[in-house]
């Protein structure tokens, strides 16, 4: 589970303002029961493209719609 989490976090590094703190993520697993972790491992990677579609550029949408308070969104 930690390897899977580390791989996911690495993929998010260039998309987040700061890198995820792996020790905090791993500590969160300590409060999850073993059965739940086993289910997460057994289900494998989650397919999100089909259900969620292509990634959306939220910053572009906010700039086009000129939503107040979002001037700094990129």
Give the CA-based shape: extended
User: Would you tell me the overall average pLDDT?
Assistant: 78
**How big is the Rg?**
17 Å
Low-confidence segments, given as residue ranges, are: none
Helix proportion of residues, in percent? 55-70%
Fraction in beta strands: under 5%
Assembly state of the chains shown: single chain
Q: How would you characterize the overall build of this protein?
A:
The chain is 55% helix and 0% strand. The chain is an all-alpha fold. The longest helix is centred in the first third of the chain and has 11 residues. The mean pLDDT is 78.
What's the layout of helices and strands?
Layout lengths: L1 H11 L9 H8 L4 H10 L5 H4 L5 H8 L9
Name some characteristics of this structure.
74 residues, mainly alpha, extended
In short:
The chain is mostly helical and 74 residues long.
């Amino acid at each position: 589970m930690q390897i899977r989490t580390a791989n996911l976090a690495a993929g998010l590094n260039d998309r987040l303002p700061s890198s995820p703190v792996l020790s905090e993520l791993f500590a969160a697993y300590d409060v999850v029961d073993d059965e739940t972790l086993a289910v997460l491992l057994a289900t494998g990677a989650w397919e999100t493209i089909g259900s969620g579609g292509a990634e959306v550029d939220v910053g572009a949408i906010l700039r086009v719609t000129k939503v107040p308070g979002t001037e700094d969104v990129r």
